[in-house]
Design goal:
The complex is a heterodimer of chains A (about 150) and B (about 800). Chain A has about 150 residues and is of the alpha+beta class. Chain A folds into two domains: about 55 residues; about 90 residues, Immunoglobulin-like. Chain A has one helix and eight strands. In chain A, strands 3, 4, 5, 7 and 8 form a five-stranded antiparallel beta sheet that branches. Chain A has a three-stranded antiparallel beta sheet with strand order 1-2-6, with no helix packed on it. In chain A, strand 7 and strand 8 form a beta hairpin. Chain A starts with a helix and ends with a strand. With about 800 residues, chain B is mainly β. Among the domains of chain B are: about 90 residues, Immunoglobulin-like (Sandwich), CATH 2.60.40.10; about 110 residues, Immunoglobulin-like (Sandwich), CATH 2.60.40; about 220 residues, Jelly Rolls (Sandwich); about 120 residues, Immunoglobulin-like. The N and C termini of chain B lie far apart (about 155 Å). The chains are: A alpha+beta (about 150), B mainly beta (about 800). At the A-B interface, helix 1, strand 1 and strand 2 of A face helix 1, strand 3 and strand 37 of B.
Chain lengths: ~150, ~800
């Protein structure tokens, strides 16, 4: 009987160990899984939130456009001002008068809040065709205005 | 077993708790993000709302002591901070300045002289475009001392007809109809006074410049002038805006009108009136009526009757006019000048080139007067001369005795491109005259230049370094070049015709001769864009021409045909100057049947091929209106008296003398009351005769008389009782008169005005038998004889304004 009682005690320890181990493993897997899921969701939400808030706070104004008529070629000078609450990055300026379309890729268009940005674009403007100016920022926001040569 | 289960439960519970806490943390984080996002949305919405509330108006803008004095009123609901000012000198397109500002104005307040510390020198003689930018990005653009686009101008003169020494008020209405939302400031009106016989003396005060003209608003400037002169004299008022867009002008005439009688002569005649003023007895107007004029047309001293008149096309008929015959009267005409004043228009093209539809010319500049925006008589395109020092100089007698523009190396004119001059595809033709100085540079000198936006394709006519004329079509892939190997830098006029028979082909004619051709074939067309430049290849005067240019004509869809039609030769021989047309004048006294009496003392003039200058050709492009008619005089001089004997007539016969080449047709307008410019409708003026020429009106004193009254005014008119006809004996001056008593069944009396005479219509009225005392049937009836007949009209118009008018009908025979 004693011998039998010793076997039962050993079995209990072993089974307890196995049970605890199993619970611990399952618990760890559950925790790890839930952490990874929540962390991934959190990152995604943070990214979406940042994108949305930045876009929301981004506000660019085409402050002034003037027309140059130098000997060599005609050009258009475009001045932008960032009146939003966040910095932004202008990546492209497009001029289109339905006859001539010019895309100018901007590499130095970073603008802190209240900064302005000015650039001169060679463009054979006319006094009769309205020109559509489209500004594209890094976040994909578009700003448009129409101007007419003098 | 129970213990193991409890332990496992605890361990599992711990893990579950961890998971729950993680989930709660995530949820809390997410909630915080949403809260943050909402706050951002709210903040951005608030800022945008603030931008909408931001509003300001310019309350003053002047240039004083070389500084721009700008006051701004905050008309919004929020303080405004101005961050930046842009200044553009519109007299120099590249002169742009940017200044940083930091001025805040609170709601409902005005900030004065906001630019006092801005280091910018502004000149009162120059004009500027300014733009203010706030720190929220709101912008407002305005212009000082100038209008940068044509404004809607209207000129009113009240009244348009005045008795001499009376006042007329001139009102200039300026409306800001800017398409670019520009506000115009310091609007200064300019009023030029041009006398056509009448004198205008300024009275009162000069209108002050208007400070601010918002978009859609109108300002009215007022001047008062005292007008004096003889009956029919005029003064023209031409109004514009200082530093405005060239050609943005409006004009109106004021005419002096004689008032013979009536107590109302102390008031201005502001109504449109009936018929025209008095005619001198030696002014014989050409009338369209043929009655009693032996199959031709009447000529007598009587006003034109209606506003349609008649246009005589000299290519179809000659123009013959007769005075009436009178078996009882001899008319002695002293020696002196005989003037035939013709109102006419010229055909735009010689006969061979009078095409219609797409074969007709689409652009035509003859430079007959000096304008900042020379007139394209087709009305299809707009040319603008460069501004000084790039403005070409006009010479009024340079070419064929008429106007042309001189270019001195850096001057140009630009023509806006549209469907009428963009080439598009072949065929096309450009023609013109040039005069190149022998002292000109040994480099390319541009006469006519157009290109595409990217400059890849071009169409140009120029002198090269050798003085050779070159016509070149560059389609980007094919270049067609025609070169005339003659040095034209020879101080002489030359005519060119540059033809584009195919998209990649050229033919060049100079002085009527084919000088070169280049045929490449293909369909690579050129569509010009922007502006065509004349006298240079751009607005900087590059490749400037040294010499004169005239008569630029373009066909956008037609190539001139020389071989079969001799169109190039015809155009080369066409004179757009002082000898465009030739007319034969036969002016003589004939018998009652129009037969030549064959006597030298009955001949006034027999002139062949009298030259007439090129006149406006607008009438060929649109319905002729009164002011497009040119005017020119034929003058003959008699050194001895001429006598129109009993039963004889005075005759004038004008016959067109066509040229063999370059034959420009002309058309004359007669008998049109709406021709009010210049000397009025066409007529013959003789030396002052001792008696008036016989008219064509006859009155039988055994019955009531009848007269027709035409109403040329824009308003309906009525005449009142007391209106009458007066017959004045030609020799003794004894008057006889009678009241106008009605029209048809409608009578006219002390309590009954006439039926309405609608604007632009003629009413027929009856008058009683004229007597020495009108209305008194026991007084003397008018005897037979020759009388000057007048019509005195007392009436009012649909605006309630009165008119009193005495008009001469002419010499009337009472039988």
């Amino acid at each position: 009987m004693v011998k039998h009682a010793k076997r039962r005690a050993l079995a209990t320890v072993v089974s307890t160990g196995i049970l605890l181990s199993a619970v611990a493993i399952m618990g760890s897997v559950l925790v790890a899984w839930s952490n990874s899921i929540f962390a991934a969701e959190q990152n995604e939400i943070t990214a979406v939130y940042s994108e949305g808030v930045n876009k929301l706070n981004e506000f660019l104004v085409i402050e002034h456009v003037w027309f140059g008529n130098e000997t060599s070629s005609r050009f258009i000078n475009v001045t932008l001002i960032n009146v939003g609450n966040v910095g932004l990055n202008v990546t492209k300026i497009t001029l289109d008068n339905s006859v001539d379309k010019t895309d100018l890729l901007i590499t130095d268009g970073g603008m802190a809040r209240n900064d302005d940005f000015s650039t001169e674009i060679t463009y054979n403007w006319t006094t009769t065709d309205p020109i559509k100016i489209t500004i594209t920022t890094e976040k994909g926001v578009l700003y448009q205005d129409y101007v007419m040569g003098p | 077993m129970k213990q193991r289960r409890a332990l496992t439960t605890i361990v599992g519970g711990v893990f579950f708790l961890i998971v729950i806490i993680t989930a709660a943390s995530y949820l809390t984080y997410t909630m915080n993000l949403f809260e943050n996002f909402s706050e951002n949305v709210f903040a951005v919405a608030q800022e945008r709302e603030n931008r909408k509330k931001e509003s300001f108006d310019i309350s003053k803008l002047t240039i004083e002591n070389n500084k721009i004095n700008l006051d701004i009123y905050n008309s919004g609901d929020i303080p405004v901070t101005f961050a930046r000012l842009w200044v553009e000198n519109v007299t120099g397109v590249d002169q742009v300045y940017k200044f940083d500002l930091n001025n805040t104005v609170t709601t409902g307040n005005t900030i004065e002289d906001i630019l006092k510390d801005v280091p910018f020198t502004a000149l009162e003689t120059q004009s500027y475009k300014l733009k203010l930018v706030t720190d929220r990005g709101t912008t407002k653009e305005f212009s000082v001392n100038a209008s940068t686009e044509p404004l809607h101008l209207q000129l009113f003169v009240l009244p348009e007809e005045v008795p001499t020494n009376f006042i007329s008020t001139i009102l200039l209405s300026v409306t800001n109809n800017s398409t670019q939302s520009t506000i115009y400031t310091n609007i200064q009106p300019v009023l030029n006074v041009i006398s056509f016989g009448a004198l205008a003396e300024f009275e009162g005060t000069t209108p002050e410049p208007h400070a601010v003209l918002e978009k859609g608003n109108t300002v009215i400037f007022e001047w008062t002038y005292r007008i004096s002169g003889e009956d029919g004299d005029k003064v023209r008022f031409e109004a514009s805006i200082l530093n405005g867009v060239p050609g943005n002008t409006v004009t109106k005439n004021v005419e002096v009108q004689k008032i013979e009688t009536a107590e109302q002569s102390t008031t201005s005649l502001s109504s449109g009136i009936l018929t025209s003023g008095l005619i001198s007895q030696n002014v014989l107007l050409f009338h369209k009526e043929a009655i009693d004029a032996i199959g031709e047309r009447q000529m007598w001293a009587s006003s034109p009757e209606n506003d349609s008149g008649e246009i005589i096309d000299f290519s179809l008929t000659n123009a013959v006019f007769y005075t009436n015959t009178d078996n009882n009267v001899t008319i002695n005409i002293p020696a002196g000048n005989w003037n035939a004043t013709l109102r006419y228009i010229s055909s735009p093209m010689p006969e061979s080139l009078m095409h219609t539809g797409s074969n007709s010319e689409t652009m035509s500049y003859h430079f007959e007067s000096d304008l900042d925006s020379p007139i394209d008589s087709t009305g299809n395109t707009i040319m603008t001369l460069g501004t000084s020092p790039n403005r070409p100089q006009w010479d009024g007698t340079a070419h064929h005795g008429a106007g042309a523009y001189e270019f001195s190396g850096n001057q140009y004119a630009s023509i806006l491109i549209n469907n009428n001059n963009d080439l598009d595809d072949s065929p096309a033709t450009t023609a013109g005259w040039f005069y190149a100085y022998s002292t000109g540079p040994a480099s390319n000198q541009m006469i006519y230049f157009g290109d595409t936006n990217n400059g890849q394709k071009s169409y140009q006519i120029f002198l090269n370094q050798n003085g050779y004329l070159v016509f070149q079509l560059d389609t980007g892939s094919t270049i067609a070049t025609c070169t005339s190997t003659v040095n034209y830098k020879d101080d002489s006029w030359h005519h060119f015709v540059a033809i584009m028979p195919g998209d990649n082909d050229c033919d060049l004619y100079v002085d009527g001769l084919l000088r070169d051709s280049d045929t490449n074939g293909g369909n690579s067309s050129i569509v010009l864009q922007g502006s065509i430049f004349v006298g240079a290849s751009d607005a900087s005067g590059t490749n400037g021409f040294n010499g004169l240019i005239d008569d630029l004509i373009h066909w956008d869809d037609y190539g001139l045909i020389e071989s079969a039609e001799q169109e190039v030769t015809d155009l080369f021989n066409t004179n757009y100057g002082t000898s465009s047309h030739l007319l034969d004048f036969d002016l003589r006294i004939v018998d009652e049947f129009g037969t030549d009496l064959g006597l030298s003392n009955k001949t006034i003039s027999q002139t062949l091929s009298f030259p007439f200058p090129y006149a406006s050709d607008f009438g060929e492009y649109s319905t002729p209106v009164s002011d497009i008619w040119g005017q020119f005089n034929f003058t003959a001089i008699t050194t001895e008296e001429r006598v129109v004997g009993l039963g004889e007539r005075l005759m004038i016969n004008m016959t067109y003398a066509p040229k063999s080449v370059g034959n420009l047709n002309m058309k004359m307008i007669i008998d049109d009351v709406s021709i009010v410019s210049g000397l009025g409708s066409s007529f013959l003026q003789t030396p002052n005769p001792d008696r008036a020429f016989s008219g064509y009106a006859t009155y039988d004193n055994s019955a009531k008389g009848e007269i027709s009254i035409f109403n040329p005014s824009p308003r309906d008119n009525w005449i009142k009782y007391q209106s009458r006809v007066v017959f004045e004996d030609e020799l003794t001056g004894t008057p006889y008169a009678s009241f106008i008593i009605g029209s048809g069944s409608a009578s006219l009396g002390p309590n009954q005005d006439s039926p309405v005479i609608l604007s632009g219509t003629t009413g027929t009225f009856e008058f009683e038998k004229p007597r020495s005392q009108p209305g008194n049937t026991s007084s003397d009836l008018i005897p037979e004889g020759r009388y000057r007949m007048y019509v005195f009209l007392d009436g009012y118009d649909s605006a309630g304004q009165i008119f009193l008018q005495t008009s001469l009908v002419g010499i009337v025979r009472v039988i």
